[in-house]
Amino acid sequence: MSTSTSTQLQDTAVIVTGAGSGIGRATARAAAEQGARVLAVGRRRDALVATARDHPGIVCHPADITAPDAPDTIAQAARTRLGRIDALVNNAAILGGGPLGTATRTQAIRLFDTNLIAPMLLSQAVVGDLESTGGVIANVSTSVGQRGWAGSGPYAASKVALESLTRSWAVELAPRGVRVVAVAPGAIATPIGANNGMSPQRREEIRAWQVARTPMGRRGRPEEVAWALCALIGRQASFVTGAVLPVDGGAVVG
User: Fold this and answer.
1) How far apart are CA 136 and CA 127, in angstroms?
2) I need a surface site. Which of 23, 98, 101, 251 has the fewest CB within 10 A?
3) Known catalytic membership, residue 111
4) Nearest one of 6, 47, 3 to 16, comparing CA atoms
5) Which among 39, 75, 118, 155 is annotated as catalytic?
6) What is the distance, to the nearest Å, from the Cα of residue 217 to the centroid of all Cα atoms in its chain?
7) How would DSSP label each residue in 7-35?
8) Helix and strand tally (H, E) in the chain?
9) How much is the average pLDDT of 77-81?
10) pLDDT digit string (tens) for 100-147?
11) Distance between CA atoms of 249 and 157, rounded to whole angstroms?
12) Contacts for 37 with CB less than 8 Å, ≥ 6 apart
């Protein structure tokens, strides 16, 4: 467990989707270490149990966020198990892309359902709770959406749309006391490629391509994105809304 002494999330109640690995796991743990109670949401119970190990502030809620009843059941689970909802971190996502002409309707629907529609409907399900607590929605986008990378179009498009919602919701919800923010990670060392069925050789090719295009010369760590998310949902960021924070080692500006 981290030795961080920050308590800016003390006694806050946070939902983190995609919490079974990578950025979601790191964020759930970092928030718990800062005093939050966390509902860790993901499809795989065993992965969630691993996330919660040695972190008593994390409770597991296995769920497919694209299921028709998921928004309401996740929201109700948070109310019951956490007592309130102060923040929602929309992190769960899947990869998808390829050159124009290679996508199928089924693949495209699954991609946008997971990366855009599910976060939208879950945010809708908890916005009343967030209004009552002066809470925040934090969306996880991608730096890939800030530039044109061949083959990344569908995935990037789903994430850019989430950024657009971030800005629109920030304006719409500010009068209701709800903040909306986002982070845009670059190349981060997570298992998302393996989880989406990429071969080891293809993952290594992508890793080399990413590092070559990152001015800092390395991939980021999930914990570095978790730091940004926890800072943005924390009390000290109370005047920050509509912001999309790059966490990409300079990839967008390089």
Assistant:
1) 9
2) 101
3) no
4) 47
5) 155
6) 24
7) -TTTT-EEEEESTTSHHHHHHHHHHHHTT
8) 9, 7
9) 98
10) 888 899 999 999 999 999 999 999 999 999 999 999 999 999 998 777
11) 21
12) 11, 12, 13, 14, 57, 59, 82, 83
Q: pLDDT band at residue 199, thresholds of 50, 70 and 90?
A: confident
Q: Which two tokens stand for residue 44?
A: 């795989």
Residues contacting 109, CB < 8 A, separation 6+: none
Distance CA 150, CA 5 (A): 43
What would the two tokens of residue 21 be? 């690995």
Phi, psi (rounded to 5 degrees) for 101: 105, -10
Question: Bridge-partner residues for 188, per DSSP?
Answer: 220
Q: What is the pLDDT of residue 3?
A: 41
d(CA 224, CA 133): 27
The answer to which of 64-68, 142-146, 197-201, 249-253 has the lowest mean pLDDT is 197-201
Please report, as a single letter, which amino acid is at residue 203: R
Name the residue with higher pLDDT: 177 or 103. Answer: 177
4-52 residue pLDDT tens: 457 889 999 999 999 999 999 999 999 999 999 999 999 999 999 999 9
Q: Which one, of 184, 185, 181, 158, lies nearest residue 171 by Cα?
A: 181
Nearest-CA neighbor of 136 among 177, 180, 176? 180
104 contacts: CB under 8 Å, gap ≥ 6: none
8 Å CB contact between 224 and 22: no
Closest CA to 237 of 247, 227, 246: 227
Higher pLDDT, 251 or 80: 80
Tokens of 202: 């293809």
